Amino acid sequence: MSTTIPLADMPFEAAALAARAHQHQKRKDNQTPYVSHVFRVCLVVRHTFGFDDPKMLAAALLHDTIEDTTIDCDDIIERFGADVAKWVAALTKDMRLPHDEREAVYAKELATADWQVKALKLADLYDNLSDSKHLSPGGRRKTAGKARFYLDAIRQALPDQIRPALALVEQRLTELERSLTP
Question: How many CB atoms lie within 10 A of CB 64?
């Protein structure tokens, strides 16, 4: 199915949809609007990692919509096309599964995902690591542990074009872990 939104307009339309879909959600600090996370992930994809594909930017903005809002995959296919929907779906955990099974399935999906999905997940990790300063030491340790788990999955069959992004995330993770040692 072809998209109804022109390629150049996709990031703008995705930003508007993400803002509406996440409008009442907050980050873990209970103060920051959740949508700031998806905006920052998009900025990381574009300005930190250097990817400017409008479909990737749209997927970055929408990466949590299926998991955390009433938006479903069909909504994304209809407005943004199959590629964006496929990438967002690959970044979506199946919340119907028990936690450990859900994480294992998600890691397996990340390991075999398209390179775009891996780049988007790296941007998600980069932002989560960057935004963990307000968390307790235990919360920061949990964030670091989850990042290590996902990085192990992403490293499998990692294409060269995203190795620099992986290095930036690993650097951010090392900084966080150093902040936890006395």
Answer: 24
pTM above 0.90, yes or no: yes
Among 53, 68, 83, 131, the one annotated catalytic:
68
Does residue 103 have an active-site annotation?
A: no
Q: Exposure string (b/e) for 98-122, b if CB count within 10 Å is 16 or more? A: eeeeebeebeebbbebeebbbbbbb
| b/e sequence 25-61, b meaning 16+ C-beta within 10 Å | eeeeeeeeebbebbbbbbebbbebbebebbbbbbbbb
Catalytic one among 67, 72, 103, 177?
A: 67
Give dist(CA 134, CA 127) in Å, integer.
13
The question of whether 75 is a catalytic residue gets the answer no
Convert the pLDDT of each residue in 148-174 to its tens digit: 999 999 998 899 999 999 999 999 999
- Distance spanning both ends of the chain, measured CA to CA: 55
